[in-house]
Amino acid sequence: MSSEEDDEWVPFSRRSEWSDVKPVPQDDGPHPVVPIAYADDFRETMDYFRAVYFSDERSRRALDLTSEAIAMNPGNYTIWHFRRLVLESLHADLNDELKFINSVASKNSKNYQIWHHKRWLAEKLGPEAAEKELEFTKNILSIDAKNYHAWSHRQWVLEALGGWENELDYCNELLEDDIYNNSAWNQRYFVITRSPLLGGLQAMRESEVSYTVGAILSNPENESPWRYLRGLHKDDPDLLAHNKQVSGVCLQVLSAKHDVVFALSLLLDLLRHGFQPSLEFCGVVDALRSVSPELSSDPASLAGSICSILETVDPLRSNYWAWRRSHLP
Amino acid sequence: MDSSPIDSSSSSSTLSSPTSSPHSAAHDNQSRTLTLSQLEQCKVEERVFEIYRIFSDAPAHTQTLMVELWRDKHIEFLTRGFNQLGPSYHVLDANRPWLCYWILHSRALLSESIDTELENNTIDFLSRCKDKNGGYGGGPGQLPHLATTYAAVNTLVTLGSDAALLSINREELHSFLLRMKDSCGAFRMHTAGEIDVRACYTAISVASILNILDLELVTGLGDYILRCQTYEGGIAGEPGSEAHGGYTFCGLATMILINEVDKLDLSSLIDWVAFRQGVECGFQGRTNKLVDGCYSFWQGGSLCIIQRLLSIAHHQIKSSPISLKHLSVDGNADSASFTGCKPDRSPYQIHDFDGEEAGKRSAIGLEFIKITNEGPLFHSIALQQYILLCSQVLEGGFRDKPGKQRDHYHSCYCLSGLSVCQYSFSKTADSPPLPNAVLGLYSNLLEPIHPLYNVVLEKYYKVQALL
């Protein structure tokens, strides 16, 4: 019987149920490079895994062996691949497998193979699995709200299995917890553009702009909503330039005279797409110049002035702003 | 351009005006509790600025020591790992070609060669990682995998000998790549494995560098990667996911290699990547996440690639002063000249392939590094400062950030990023930089790389000459 506890690991050579199997040592060659000083239990487990893998033994004991091997190195994709073959051949109970994989995933939440296995399993379980999968990713995200794999899995579940009903609310919750959580903003975009329950980007745009502008005003130094605001107009950038809420928030932030980099950057984009700045706008930009304002407030040269200001207030990106300036129409 | 380090030890630093710089998300103007993102950012800034403070307060000779590239220590760390890894490395037992690549590429960047015996051992070991039907696995007897195949091929290219390069069976490898191709246009990492932009890059990089890139491999690929570009401008692992530095590099490099980079929204991509460099001077992987030394390559390298791309476009437009309408329809398939007579052709399309010859597709790699370039789109000296002062480890090797442990992965990508920085002002990819492009002593200079494949440039030339 393969032991699940590691207080007393029994070598395979002493397990009677494995006595018919000849372990296969790794073909490392006489002078391997990057050799790993395997512990005995690791080496032996892998020797027995190789035996069943090469002989393609799709048995119960092979399945248990993969569980042991996975526990030692969850990154070994060959073992996972073989495990799936065994599960299929045995017509194994997939709900048991779900328990297994969720337990492994909780301890290794940043491992590609584990999440791929979850996806494979969820696909087999079908739409009934949606709720559990969403619940599971929610738990992972409650520990690490930006876990990339968890988010990708969540998106896949929504598209393949459904469950969109509460997703926008979930985004709201996460953003209330942490308005800087860019993964939550990304998920928001995903929901408003793809949810079959909402009207799509165009229908959602106005309310989303309001939400985003609110987020900007409470934390103007937060980059996420600024990018989101642009994203809301990806399909129609000229619309961005004509949106009063957008130019309004720009003006407000610039008038406050701190955390202006994103506002200036947005203004540059607005100008590129036909925004006609008022004199008030030009004045507010003028006030940010560190040199004496002998430069005119002519809107045409406004873009150039903005780039110059940005070279000063955002010096880390001075090369980038210089390049932007050289590429103005 | 002054090569002295940047003092950003306080938020109202010499770098910024009275307005606080972006990414100082921690310095909230309202007196509210900080969010988790802000808290984490604050902690990192504290550690990093402490180091920069120590640096700026230190006497000149100490400063020189601090920004010195401790070559011997790194080589010691790398060589030791190459010869023997401890039992805790069993978690990388399915990644051994990666370990080969991270270590040997790092050594090559440090101009350290490898003796014939070790070289032969490496070639032998990698052959044992080969699957009988093509492709390399993470170790002997393992399923072939695109990432480990990429690592194995890049390792052999880095070894550079005829023996190393000829040990690759290109036909077998090509059939493996084709088997990994999915109907959606992208690639799977392994049989029935996950599909993402990383798989696409590893497949195409290998195909391109070995001149086995053909139409079948690229069909539908550009459209898949385009779907992975997010509203932020960066590229995600899969359509819908968050823009991420690693995937952005993979997506961008792939699009260039398959000659479809004009499909991307380049201006928003450039903007996103440029904004990933933060007050710590290093790059973050995603918006509002933490700085990490490895992004010196993924993000810095992306901007380096873009820099060269823009130069190519600029060069081509400049060298064709006549009206586009008068250019011939078929163009010249052998040269890198811009033939843009088709109205939907953008300036970024480099070649006009009428044929499906793999050699011509792979020629993109060669053309890419010949052209003159503009200056870097990021702050090169600041990034070098982060790499040398915050990522470099006294005992050898590099790490993500202060407080983290060194590892071979970070050693590889911090050094690769450092090389990118040092050559970011150079007219061609391998012309020696001026001293003020290199932070610290000129002896810090690394070998130049080919940014699309991330192998030392000299090694790339060798492959092209041989194959």
UniProtKB/TrEMBL annotation, chain A:
<dbReference type="GO" id="GO:0005965">
    <property type="term" value="C:protein farnesyltransferase complex"/>
</dbReference>
<dbReference type="Pfam" id="PF01239">
    <property type="entry name" value="PPTA"/>
</dbReference>
<feature type="region of interest" description="Disordered">
    <location>
        <begin position="1"/>
        <end position="30"/>
    </location>
</feature>
<keyword id="KW-0460">Magnesium</keyword>
<comment type="function">
    <text>Essential subunit of both the farnesyltransferase and the geranylgeranyltransferase complex. Contributes to the transfer of a farnesyl or geranylgeranyl moiety from farnesyl or geranylgeranyl diphosphate to a cysteine at the fourth position from the C-terminus of several proteins having the C-terminal sequence Cys-aliphatic-aliphatic-X.</text>
</comment>
<dbReference type="GO" id="GO:0005953">
    <property type="term" value="C:CAAX-protein geranylgeranyltransferase complex"/>
</dbReference>
<dbReference type="GO" id="GO:0004662">
    <property type="term" value="F:CAAX-protein geranylgeranyltransferase activity"/>
</dbReference>
<dbReference type="InterPro" id="IPR002088">
    <property type="entry name" value="Prenyl_trans_a"/>
</dbReference>
<keyword id="KW-0808">Transferase</keyword>
<keyword id="KW-0637">Prenyltransferase</keyword>
<protein>
    <recommendedName>
        <fullName>Protein farnesyltransferase/geranylgeranyltransferase type-1 subunit alpha</fullName>
        <ecNumber>2.5.1.58</ecNumber>
        <ecNumber>2.5.1.59</ecNumber>
    </recommendedName>
</protein>
<comment type="similarity">
    <text>Belongs to the protein prenyltransferase subunit alpha family.</text>
</comment>
<dbReference type="GO" id="GO:0004660">
    <property type="term" value="F:protein farnesyltransferase activity"/>
</dbReference>
<keyword id="KW-0677">Repeat</keyword>
From TrEMBL, chain B:
<keyword id="KW-0862">Zinc</keyword>
<comment type="subunit">
    <text>Heterodimer of FTA and FTB.</text>
</comment>
<dbReference type="InterPro" id="IPR008930">
    <property type="entry name" value="Terpenoid_cyclase/PrenylTrfase"/>
</dbReference>
<comment type="similarity">
    <text>Belongs to the protein prenyltransferase subunit beta family.</text>
</comment>
<keyword id="KW-0479">Metal-binding</keyword>
<protein>
    <recommendedName>
        <fullName>Protein farnesyltransferase subunit beta</fullName>
        <ecNumber>2.5.1.58</ecNumber>
    </recommendedName>
</protein>
<dbReference type="InterPro" id="IPR001330">
    <property type="entry name" value="Prenyltrans"/>
</dbReference>
<dbReference type="Pfam" id="PF00432">
    <property type="entry name" value="Prenyltrans"/>
</dbReference>
<dbReference type="GO" id="GO:0008270">
    <property type="term" value="F:zinc ion binding"/>
</dbReference>
<feature type="domain" description="Prenyltransferase alpha-alpha toroid">
    <location>
        <begin position="70"/>
        <end position="455"/>
    </location>
</feature>
<feature type="compositionally biased region" description="Low complexity">
    <location>
        <begin position="1"/>
        <end position="24"/>
    </location>
</feature>
<feature type="region of interest" description="Disordered">
    <location>
        <begin position="1"/>
        <end position="32"/>
    </location>
</feature>
<dbReference type="GO" id="GO:0097354">
    <property type="term" value="P:prenylation"/>
</dbReference>
<dbReference type="InterPro" id="IPR026872">
    <property type="entry name" value="FTB"/>
</dbReference>
<keyword id="KW-0677">Repeat</keyword>
<dbReference type="GO" id="GO:0005965">
    <property type="term" value="C:protein farnesyltransferase complex"/>
</dbReference>
<dbReference type="InterPro" id="IPR045089">
    <property type="entry name" value="PGGT1B-like"/>
</dbReference>
<keyword id="KW-0637">Prenyltransferase</keyword>
<comment type="function">
    <text>Catalyzes the transfer of a farnesyl moiety from farnesyl diphosphate to a cysteine at the fourth position from the C-terminus of several proteins. The beta subunit is responsible for peptide-binding.</text>
</comment>
<keyword id="KW-0808">Transferase</keyword>
<dbReference type="GO" id="GO:0004660">
    <property type="term" value="F:protein farnesyltransferase activity"/>
</dbReference>
